[in-house]
Specification:
alpha+beta; endopeptidase fold (from Nostoc punctiforme); six-stranded antiparallel sheet; 18% helix
């Protein structure tokens, strides 16, 4: 099996066949919420549900923590977690999926942030991930640990 660095720039398996969530939330296809809900289901086997509105920036407070843990703050990310941000072009926040943390790097995937990179494995140094690498566009609020 290839290492995480070998996957950077390639598409996440199954991206084009991700479904629209059923249950108590519906997310528009190709949005970050749709992507992270699907990735949590396919990668970690977790079907996330929410007890209130679920725009990206609201996920930490809205997620039902029966099968996950919401943690606020800039802690070192962990594999199979969702990073939650506030801000963004429309003020609805942003989410990305943490695939792995390995050898001083965070490997992640996301949708609807950087044109042409939807569903692709990406990487950044862990120190940069915890810093201001995406500001002023979005600001890290915390994580949903799956």
């Amino acid at each position: 099996m290839p290492g995480w660095a070998d996957l950077v720039g390639t598409k996440v398996k199954g991206y084009s066949s991700f479904s629209t969530p059923v249950g108590n939330r519906s997310f528009k296809k190709a949005q970050c919420t749709w992507y992270c809900w699907n990735r949590a289901s396919y990668q970690a086997g977790k079907k996330l549900s929410f007890h209130s509105s679920a725009n990206a920036y609201q996920w930490l407070d809205a997620v039902d923590q029966a099968n996950c843990q919401a943690i606020k703050g800039k802690i070192t990310p962990v594999r199979n977690s969702i990073a939650v941000y506030k801000g963004g072009s429309q003020g609805l926040g942003h989410l990305l999926y943490i695939e792995a943390v390995d050898n001083g790097r965070v490997y992640f995937s996301e949708s609807n942030y950087t044109k042409g990179r939807d569903g692709m494995y990406q990487t950044v140094k862990t120190a940069d991930f915890l810093g201001e690498w995406r500001t002023p566009h979005v600001e890290l609020l915390g994580y949903i640990i799956l």
